[in-house]
Specification:
four-stranded parallel β-sheet, 4 strands
Length: about 160
């Protein structure tokens, strides 16, 4: 057997372990808690083009900076889909708005709230509605524990 082929065969498992085989599986979004100004600047430099804030109006107003202004100053699109801590504003309309924003976005997206939970529920619901994933697959894909009752509310199911 050719020495180069042998080396490639030996090295292939290392590339798989390093994640090279799944480089294109990275989702076009990320979930996080509240970003700082420095975080937003870094995210813009990393190719994030959409920031979706799911914090309530009161929480967003309590920040020590104007998130929309910082996001837009760095060339990113800002979308505020407020969901209060009781998740009363969690609805299929919010899921549809997220879906429209993600579909129109050409780069990566950051979805956040205070801790990332509300953003994860909204994203999981989007994956079920728009991507056709099962509820379990969507929860696994977002990588966070999501309460079924919250996901049901977002999907408009009893």
């Amino acid at each position: 057997m050719n020495r180069c082929i042998r080396l490639l065969l030996l090295a292939a498992p290392l590339f798989l372990l390093a994640g090279f085989a799944h480089a294109n599986d990275d989702p076009p979004w990320q979930l996080d808690g509240q970003p700082t100004v420095a975080d937003l600047e870094a995210l813009a430099a990393e190719g994030v083009t959409l920031v979706v804030n799911t914090r309530s109006v009161a929480e967003t107003a309590g920040l020590d900076f104007d998130e929309r202004a910082v996001v837009e100053a760095h060339g990113m699109t800002y979308l505020h889909l407020p969901i209060d801590r009781e998740r009363a504003w969690l609805s299929p309309a919010r899921v549809d708005a997220l879906g429209e924003a993600l579909a129109a976005n050409d780069g990566k997206a950051l979805l956040h709230c205070g801790s990332g939970y509300r953003a994860a529920v909204l994203l999981a619901a989007h994956l079920v509605r728009a991507e056709g994933m099962s509820v379990d697959a969507a929860i696994e894909r977002v990588g966070r524990d999501v309460a079924r009752a919250d996901l049901d509310r977002a999907l408009g199911t009893p």
